[in-house]
Amino acid sequence: MKKNILITNDDGYDAIGLHHLVDSLSSIANITVVAPATNKSACAHSMTLTQPLRFKEVKPSWYKLEDGTPTDCIFLGLHNIFKNKLPDLIISGINIGSNMGEDITYSGTVAGAMEAVLQKVPAISISQVLDENAKKLGDNFDYSLAKKTIFDIVIKIFENKFPLGKRKFLNINIPPCSIEQSKGIKITKVGERVYGDDCKQYKDPKGNSFHWIGLHPLLWNESKNKDCDFEAINQNYISITPIKLDMTSYDDITNLKQWIEQ
Questions:
Q1: Does a structural domain hold residue 47?
Q2: Mean pLDDT of all residues in the chain?
Q3: Phi, psi of 64 (to 5 degrees)
Q4: What is the pTM of this model?
Q5: Buried/exposed code over 198-232 (b: 16+ C-beta within 10 A; e: otherwise)
Q6: At residue 215, does pLDDT exceed 90?
């Protein structure tokens, strides 16, 4: 009997990466898609509480959620479509662009996996890193390495078991290269992202100012980040990082207690 996989993303229900993900796994699992009706990139782990949300089935087992975030998609998908039996696995992606370093805190794609493990379902977020050449190719970029990687990982999970415990998920980033150029898989830590200040101010036709936040160059602190996700991708490795939701800084608990008591 085929396993059941629930899929979401933050690029929207008709994004090219989502289609490639479904195509890569449809032969080994029953696929259900619940994804945002519009692009929700960088929406983080946000849930919609101020307005109603509506499913629209665009084709069998493929739903878009009007005004919904990836978190909404997973939460409502599990408690409506899968209310009698949870899926065996949830996958969020294939995101168009990287999700490495502290960018995972912004990412709607990663948030889909976060919500999944909060709801006690094993989860993976997967992103395709794009270099300048890949960006020029757009939808014509070759996703073969991403598709092969997620297929192999899912088979491994189904044949054995999910490798992480509760409230933990896998964050996968795929280098912008071919299968032949890839050096394989590296298990990595989260790198330290270097952020810029790309924010432009403009005026509309009525003379009112508005601001537009741009995308920062994909830079990281190389001196402090050996064996991190950025380094792996830079060397054409597939990066797989185990992520946990407990963000407590345990090393600082004792010092903080002493500081409070002073």
A1: yes
A2: 95
A3: -110, 145
A4: 0.94
A5: eeeeeeeeeeeeeeeeeeeebebeeeebeebbbbb
A6: no
